[in-house]
Structure formats: C-alpha cells, structure tokens
Q: What sequence folds into this?
C-alpha cells in the first residue's frame, strides 16, 4: 500500500478506519519532518490506542481525528494520499466512502486500500465461521451486507474504484499466511480478533466450548505441522487509484 501511494517528505497523508494506526505510522516516517499523517477512525477508543502507540514509537508528526469515512469532515483536495487497510468493506456504503476519499484527495493524489479476498481463500476465517453456522450459533453471511468479505471480488473492486472517479486503477491479489505456534494460540487470537466468534462461543456451556475447540482443531488439521504449529493461508485484494 505504501509503495502504491509513494509518500514523499512534506506530504499530508490521511489514514481512514485506521484502528491502531499501524499503516499510517509507516507513512509518517516517510513524509517527515515537514509532512504529517492524519490518523482517523470512527471509534474514539481505537484512536486512544493509536495515540498510545504513536507515543511509544516517538512519532511527532501524527494528528488524530474522529472521522466517518462515509462523510469525511475535511476540505476538498486537502490531502496528498489516502490509506485504508481492512476498512471499506465494513462500511454501509463503500461507493460513498470512495467518492468522499476522492473528494479530499488533491488531483493526482493516490489512494491505496486492502480488503479481504473471498472466504474460501481465507481458511483462517472460513473454518471458525462454518463451525458456528453449522451449529446454528451464527447466521450465514448475507450477500451485500457490510462485513470482512463484502468486497471480495477483484473485478467488482476495480469497478468500485473506477465508479468513484479514480484513474489508473489496479487491483491485485496478495497471499500471505497466519502463523500460530499451536492451535491454542490460534484459538486465543481468533477469540481476540472476532467479536462475533468471541460472543457466540463464550456464551455456550463449557462442554460445548470444548467440543467447538476440538472440531475446529480437526478442520485445521491440513494446516497443522507435526510440531503442532499452524500456517494458515490468508488472501487479500489490494487496490489503488489516482484522483
Ligand atoms: C478491521 S479494523 C482495521 C484497522 C486498521 N486499518 C488495521 O489495518 O489494523 C476496521 C476499523 O474500521 C473502523 N471503521 C468501520 N467503519 C468505519 C467508518 N464508516 N468510518 C471510519 N472508520 C470505520 C472501525 O472502527 C475499525 O477500527
């Protein structure tokens, strides 16, 4: 994403749906000392975490702003680049968010984004999800509803960027892996990262939780090595365009 927006010293970069700000903080180092980053999220609590992290990293050229990406409270053409990792697919109206993104970008400014590719290409999420659905503990995903896999269509994402008015649009698949030392570590990470999984599982009686764990460990056997460690494929779509 950073290669795609190519931040230069002196530039102003906006990160949307920044969470703890990890992606934008890398850009902050690239635009220093005169440039800066606006780390934004709709959730103030996320920005509290991002502020703490920026302090730990000693970053002095980052400002924090609560912003809804579907209604960006910034002037027209006020930033040089926009970054948004794992954000647009969670929004109620991604086309509006991308139009807003283009509005705040200066002409020729770049956007770079990442969203998850299809659930089938992401067994780290597929198997916990199927486990819950088959037990009737979670509803099947609703096509078209916001969610981690809502923009998992390469051509569709390209069209979305083009419809928002971006030029020089490209979308690429990016494959990587989630590693865990043990199934226990994968289980804890999944509980920690997915609110839906966490709430659905922990509401069950202890015996059933143990059963869910056992069944999920079995589903993940193909990704489990002899020493018990796991390497599970993950795949994202990375998109970029020029305003
Ligand atoms: C999966 S996290 C990604 C965080 C971060 N970008 C990262 O890659 O680690 C999604 C974030 O999007 C934020 N978010 C969801 N909808 C949003 C919206 N409409 N406007 C701004 N932020 C939004 C959430 O508050 C959350 O922090």
A:
């Amino acid at each position: 994403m950073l290669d795609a927006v190519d931040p230069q010293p002196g530039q102003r970069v906006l990160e949307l749906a920044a969470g703890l700000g990890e992606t934008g903080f890398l850009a902050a180092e690239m635009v220093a000392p005169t440039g800066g980053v606006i780390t934004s999220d709709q959730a103030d609590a996320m920005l509290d975490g991002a502020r703490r992290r920026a302090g730990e990293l000693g970053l002095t050229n980052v400002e924090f702003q609560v912003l809804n990406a579907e209604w960006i409270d910034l002037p027209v053409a006020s930033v040089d680049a926009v970054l948004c990792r794992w954000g647009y697919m969670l929004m109620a109206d991604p086309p509006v968010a991308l139009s807003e993104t283009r509005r705040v970008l200066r002409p020729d400014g770049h956007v770079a984004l990442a969203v998850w590719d299809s659930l089938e290409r992401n067994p780290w999420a597929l198997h916990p999800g199927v486990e819950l659905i088959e037990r009737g503990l979670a509803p099947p995903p609703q096509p078209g509803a916001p969610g981690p896999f809502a923009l998992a269509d390469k051509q569709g994402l390209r069209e979305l960027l083009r419809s928002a008015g971006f030029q020089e649009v490209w979308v690429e698949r990016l494959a990587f892996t989630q590693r865990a030392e043990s199934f226990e570590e994968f289980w804890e990470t999944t509980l920690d990262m997915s609110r839906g999984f966490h709430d659905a599982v922990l509401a069950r009686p202890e015996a059933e939780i143990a059963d869910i764990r056992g069944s999920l460990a079995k589903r993940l056997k193909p990704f489990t090595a002899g020493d018990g460690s796991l390497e599970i494929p993950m795949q994202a779509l990375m998109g970029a365009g020029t305003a």
In short: The pocket of S-adenosylmethionine is lined by residues 16-19, 22-23, 41-43, 46, 68-70, 85-87, 90-91 (CB under 6 Å). The two ends are 16 Å apart (CA to CA). The first strand starts at residue 12 and ends at 15. The mean pLDDT is 97.
